[in-house]
């Protein structure tokens, strides 16, 4: 008779997500994952199929925890410029909040895994495209309302702002200096002037 799982899958994925953020996919061994999750490697394989399966689950959780709230904020219907600025400020606050220099899992996965793993690349594309579409919608609506000048393409502005957000995450991993990151964010936001 098959044994039933006796552990919290969500807690295991969260612990694995943090391990991958600290040391990347390649730098995180199955032993590291077992230690982080408190599970034996057999339980990890039974629940997720492989280290890669656990990594994909961690990417999905990361999207839910970090990307979806930004997208929800953008879709809140508030003043376009204000809500986009809130997204940037919130992102900077998240980058520097504990000074641990943990990598953004999306940026790390793009650099380490997307070129060799189509499933990782597809998840990253989906996440960034959803964020870009939410920004596009806010910018286009802001242009209609006269909150943002309409002399630039809303699609181009949205693409630039996604790149700027990801750039802040990279720079924050190097030097989580809030004042420096906010100066960069403010320069990026001038594209809406």
TrEMBL record:
Keyword Transcription in the entry? The reply is: yes
Fetch the PROSITE patterns from UniProt. HTH_TETR_1, HTH_TETR_2
Indicate yes or no for the key word Ion transport. Answer: no
Per UniProt, the keywords (alphabetical) are: DNA-binding, Transcription, Transcription regulation
The protein in question is named TetR/AcrR family transcriptional regulator
User: What residue intervals traverse the membrane?
Assistant: none
* DNA-binding region ranges: 29-48
Instruction: One Pfam family, please name it.
Output: TetR_C_13
Native species of this protein?
Streptomyces olivaceoviridis
Give all residue intervals belonging to the HTH tetR-type domain. 6-66
Q: What taxonomic classification does the UniProt entry list for its organism?
A: Bacteria, Bacillati, Actinomycetota, Actinomycetes, Kitasatosporales
